[in-house]
Amino acid sequence: MSRIRNAAIAGTAVLTAALTACSGGGSAPAAAEVGAAPAKAVISVNLQGKQAGAGVPVKVTLTEGKLTEVTVIDSKGARLTGRISADKKSWTSDRIAVPGTSYTVEAKDERGGSAKADFTTARPDTVNKLTLVPGKNSMVGIAQPLSIVFDHPVKNKAEVEKHLKVTTSNRTEGSWGWMQDWSGKDRADWRPKEYWKPDTKVTLNADLNGIDSGAGGGWFVRDYTTNLTVGKNQIVKVDLDNHRLKLVRDGQEIKDVPMSAGTPGGEKASWRGRTVLMSKEGTINMRSETVGLGDAYDKMVDYSMRLTWSGMYAHAAPWNAGYFGSANRSSGCIGMSDADARWVYDQVQVGDPFEVTGDDAKGTQALNNGYGEWNLSWSEWQAKSALR
User: Fold this and answer.
1) Residue 388 lies in a domain
2) How many separate domains does the chain show?
3) pLDDT of residue 291
4) What's the whole-model pTM score?
């Protein structure tokens, strides 16, 4: 058991003492006089000392009289908000005390008296951090999920999910779902029930400061936030069997492009399913060794648009010009002429759905191979929430 967990248990015992005995030595609760009334009123704080347990709300209790104000300030000058109980005898913070932080408590009663106390929470043995996608102020396509990848394991998934708050400008229905990321780390994505409506504004507040992610994962010691705006309503439809790529915007076909996708019948075949454009990477070096295809190719490739972590892209492939519109002969990617690839690259947005259909595929894109959640039904996706 880690040091901070021992401290948390000790803190629980202190809370019991605080409510029953407000004086004494050694390990007794922190107490201070309020005013100079003959019957000395004192406050008790459930957290005391230099190794107080984090992860619980701060509770201040007044033994006599009524509380009128309680102020709790951390070592950075931030105020911990809270509420006085209906009987005016106690105050409880809205959020929990976080690890490795000093707090100063001041309470005032109805007679004008005041009392102070202070405590410091124990430092965490392990700190968990996370990466949010998309980044702040992003403009994205209608299929873009919110995605969180955690540095360390998250055992307390339900508790963490409770603190992940998604707000939309039009009350979009959506759900979190948990998976193991392609990297092997824990990951949680939030996708709407249907594709986003254009112009929707979305904010994610991950209010995780002070939350314990569970055994082996450590504590979060800060909050995170990101926001996005949904852009154009457009879908890229890829027909593997007919060797065509079509851009559909607002329900209208804008362009029909001949292409050549992955060679069917083996590992070079393309993935089918509803995938999401992850990034527009421009000109990049593609080497077959990185995707387990030996020394088949080593090329500089223009207008590269990533669709999966496993290396499926849409891009310019002038070397395959003889197959555009007639046969699938690539090593798994969706290849087009330079001119067509440039046009598509200029039109698409990160977060646009690529709906890939046809029998000339090696299967359906996996959930964690990029953003594969759109290949699950709504009920299947909801079942991946830790709160279901």
Assistant:
1) no
2) 3
3) 58
4) 0.86
